[in-house]
Amino acid sequence: DATYDAWLILAPHLPLVPVSRAVGSRVREASDEALQSANHLAEITQHSSMRRAEDRLPAQRAIADLFTIALGLTAPDPLPAGPYGTLYLAFREDVAGLPDVRESLSRRAARLGCSSRTLTRACLSVSGRTAKQESDAILALEARRLLAVPSLTVTQIASALGFSEATNFSKFVRRTTGAPPATWRRRA
């Protein structure tokens, strides 16, 4: 589907958990062996006999980490060429780590030890997009990821991403992805 920037691995039987510094922004192809290992791990999680949630969660987190390793998703992306590569990656990591629409570009830049203009120059140099466009793209990807979770309401997702109202979130999703949240819900 040409509207996607990335492939998403959906495992509804696993809780949303942070995975050890995994997936980078580049496309990776998994080998047949990796896919077989990942399938085996998925079967283990589906047939888990642990009854208590406090026992099950650590096991599922470990399996989620093993899943990303089996698929070869833990290899770091190569550093983008040019003098701004490190700053660009730090910015992307900052936005992904704190996906909040209220977080200003100047505050992010200050946290990274530079000015907003330098941050925008870095993004333009590496990706051809401004820092605002880059930030919006990361937030839109996170929004689509959260919209794939049926137990979360649009209002909960909007709040988690820092939107004051669900209508503002809906406008943002439509503007950045070309489709309203309901469309992404149906695709999940």
Commentary on this structure:
- 57% of the residues lie in helices and 0% in strands.
- The chain has 9 helices and no strands.
- The longest helix has 18 residues, at 53-70.
- By secondary structure, it is mainly alpha-helical.
- It is globular and about 55 Å long.
- The model is unreliable at 1-7 and 12-27 (pLDDT under 50).
- The two termini are 13 Å apart.
- Helix 3 packs across helix 5, helix 6 (131-147) crosses helix 8 and helix 7 crosses helix 8 (166-177).
Q: Based on Cα principal axes, name the global outline.
A: globular
Poorly predicted tracts of residues: 1-7, 12-27
Number of helices: 9
Distance between the termini: 13 Å
Number of strands: 0
Summing up helix and strand content along with how strands pair, one would put the structural category as mainly alpha
What share of residues is helical? 55-70%
Q: Mean pLDDT, nearest integer?
A: 76
Using only CA atoms, what is the Rg?
18 Å
Quick structural summary:
By secondary structure, the protein is mainly alpha-helical.
Topology:
Blueprint lengths: L31 H15 L6 H18 L14 H13 L7 H7 L4 H12 L3 H17 L6 H7 L5 H12 L3 H7 L1
Helix pairs in contact: 1-2, 3-5, 3-6, 6-8, 7-8
Keywords for this entry:
188 residues; mainly alpha; 57% helix; 9 helices; disordered N terminus
